[in-house]
Amino acid sequence: MSLRILQAKARDGAAWVSRAFALFFKRPIAFSALFSLFLFACVALLALPYIGAVLVLIAWPLLSLAFMIAALAAQGGQAVHAGQLIEPLRAVNPGEVARRRTLLTLCGLFALTNALAMLAGDALDGGAFERLQVLMMSSRNDATQTEIAALLAEPKLRMALTLRSAGISLLALVFWHAPALVWWQGQGVAQALFSSTLACWRNRGAFLVYGLAWAFTLMVFGLVTGLLFALMGVPQLALVAAVPAALLFSTVFYVSLLLTYQGCFGSGESIESRVA
Questions:
Q1: C-alpha distances in angstroms, 139 versus 121, 136, 142, 154, 240?
Q2: Domain spans in the chain, listed from the N-terminal domain onward
Q3: What confidence tens digit (pLDDT) does each residue in 23-72 have?
Q4: Distance CA 57, CA 227 (A)
Q5: Within 10 A of 136 (CB to CB), how many other CB atoms are there?
Q6: Structural contact between residues 192 and 104, judged by C-beta atoms closer than 8 angstroms
C-alpha cells in the first residue's frame, strides 16, 4: 500500500495542539475515562513482580493507537468508549490478525528498546537516578533535601540523565506514528519505524513548534494557577491543582497524536474505512 508523507508547515504544530483541545472538549468525560482506565490498568500490572513493568512498556504503543482510534471516532461524531483500548487486540479477519501480530511485535520492540535505554542509564549513573527517585518520594526534611542536592550535583548523574532523555526522545520519534502505520496502513515493523522517523524528520519544524506550544501551554497554566492561588492566600493548593491538570494535559496530548498523524500522512480512506 503506497503512502505519501505530507509536508506540514511549522505553524501547523501549534494548530495540532489547539485542535486537540477542541477535539478533547467534544468528549471530555469519555477521553478522560479512557486515559484513567489505562492508568488503573498500569497500576494493576505494576503489582505483578518483574513482568508487570515489562507489560506496561508493551502496552504503551497500544495506548497511543487506542487514542488515535478514539480521536478519529470523535472527529466523525461517534462515541469514545473503553473498548477502543483493546480494539486492535479483538481482530477477527485474517488481515487484521496479521496486523495485530505485527503490532504486538512492535510493542515488544518498544518495550525492549526502552528497557535497554533505562538499563544503559542505570549503568552510567551507578543507580543514582533510582536513589534520586526514592529520595524525592520520601519525606522532605533537611537531610533529604541535602542528599537530593548532592545527587544532582554529581556529573555522572547529569550526564546519564541527559543521555537517558536523549535516548527516550529519539525512541519516541521513531515509534511516534508506527502503531498507526501498522494498524491503518498495513506496514511491517521496519517499514513503519522508517516511515515514522522520516515523517518526523521531514516535519521537524512543525514538531518543534508542537513541542514549544505544549511547553508554552504548561508554563502559562502554571503561572496563572500559581498567581490565582497566591492572590487567594492559599498558594499550597497550586500543587493540589497540578494533579488533575496533569491528567487533563496528558489526555489532550494523546488526543493530539491523531492530529500529528493526519498532518504527516493525511486522512484517506485507509483510515476512515476502519472506523465505520
A1: 26, 8, 9, 22, 17
A2: 12-122+175-272
A3: 999 999 999 999 999 999 998 998 888 898 889 999 999 999 999 999 99
A4: 37
A5: 11
A6: no
